[in-house]
């Protein structure tokens, strides 16, 4: 961990394309999550085992969170919100493996996640209200607010990216500094704190994405409804 | 710090691919199994509700059937009571008729028995009367006239011991009893025989119809019986003491 955490290490190169370490780590996470999902869900039964009960608890909790924010069937948002939560949580906690740096500690990963949420917000708003209806929602409460609303669309996605990047990168950065200065066991309390921070950040990212998408869906239906505000992060 | 667009593109694709993977291998199967369980639970609930409805209907039908059974039982019992009452009345009437018939038969039998007994008694009485008459007549002298009775009286007097005969004959109230007035000849003949037997000549003759036939000598000291009445009395006494006079 002596290298600069802000630098982007290259794992290997395929022709002109350089494949960075966060990408490889993400592939590893994808493999683990995909294989784990396949293994855990290939023998589901009506009388659930403990593992199946945990899976069902996770899914139903995600559904409950979605239903508490957005009216209607939570199934349409379940894959996106669930994937964001599980991926970010797994990525944040991957720092527990020695030599592995969380992909979310690099801006490219967080930017990709924020872009997905940004696009999903627009798509959900258009699908729920139609293109014209969605565009009209920018004129709420008055047309004067159109520039501010447009800027808000970008800034809140940007804030998502920066918040996640800052929190995870700072944790990695501090652990790296302590490790290089103090020794092997000193960073352990901070690593434990990183676990909590990683879980909280995953939850915040997913719930804010849900709030943004829900806001885009429901703004066209109730113009007078106050806009969803970001939680303190 | 710089922003690597290649990594950004890779991560964008990676997250979308992961979204597809989790959607297919995690969320879809789990949601399907939850939906299946919910459907089966709802089906079980519906089946339970249907079973409950069926049970309620069956209970209602059973109650209706029980009510019908109670009504039928009541009708059957009422009919049975009515039939039993009719049968009892018929039996009582039959018993009364039978008892009346038996009583009439008993009365007829008693009447026949009584008539037979009366006939038997009459026959026996007739036979007894014949026996008594024959016995009594057999004991009377032949022929049964005053002379014959006088002869038997003297014979009987002679059979008495001497002392008793003397006491009898010497008694002042000595008299001769006869059932009817004697003719002069019969009275003289009787007196002669008595005097010959030791009696005084002045013995008076008294008429006593109760003797029926015969002659008797009577005084305060005794009596010499010699009459049909006495013979009949002896026969009656023998019958009282020993039964049939022929015995």
UniProtKB/TrEMBL annotation, chain A:
InterPro entries: ATP_syn_F0_a_bact/chloroplast, ATP_synth_F0_asu, F0_ATP_A_sf. It is a multi-pass membrane protein. It is found in: Cell membrane; Membrane. The keyword Cell membrane applies. The keyword Transit peptide does not apply. The chain crosses the membrane at residues 20-40, 80-100, 112-135, 164-188, 200-217. Keywords: ATP synthesis, Cell membrane, CF(0), Hydrogen ion transport, Ion transport, Membrane, Transmembrane, Transmembrane helix, Transport. PANTHER family: ATP SYNTHASE SUBUNIT A, CHLOROPLASTIC. Key component of the proton channel; it plays a direct role in the translocation of protons across the membrane. Belongs to the ATPase A chain family. This is ATP synthase subunit a. It comes from Rhodobacter flavimaris. The lineage of its organism: Bacteria, Pseudomonadati, Pseudomonadota, Alphaproteobacteria, Rhodobacterales.
From TrEMBL, chain B:
Keywords: ATP synthesis, Cell membrane, CF(0), Coiled coil, Hydrogen ion transport, Ion transport, Membrane, Transmembrane, Transmembrane helix, Transport. The keyword Transcription does not apply. This is ATP synthase subunit b. CDD domains: ATP-synt_Fo_b (cd06503). HAMAP family: ATP_synth_b_bprime. Residues 45-101 form a coiled coil. The chain crosses the membrane at residues 6-27. Pfam families: ATP-synt_B, OSCP. The gene is atpF. F-type ATPases have 2 components, F(1) - the catalytic core - and F(0) - the membrane proton channel. F(1) has five subunits: alpha(3), beta(3), gamma(1), delta(1), epsilon(1). F(0) has three main subunits: a(1), b(2) and c(10-14). The alpha and beta chains form an alternating ring which encloses part of the gamma chain. F(1) is attached to F(0) by a central stalk formed by the gamma and epsilon chains, while a peripheral stalk is formed by the delta and b chains. The lineage of its organism: Bacteria, Pseudomonadati, Pseudomonadota, Alphaproteobacteria, Rhodobacterales. It is found in: Cell membrane; Endomembrane system. It is a single-pass membrane protein. It comes from Rhodobacter flavimaris. PANTHER family: ATP SYNTHASE SUBUNIT B', CHLOROPLASTIC (PTHR33445:SF2). The keyword Chaperone does not apply.
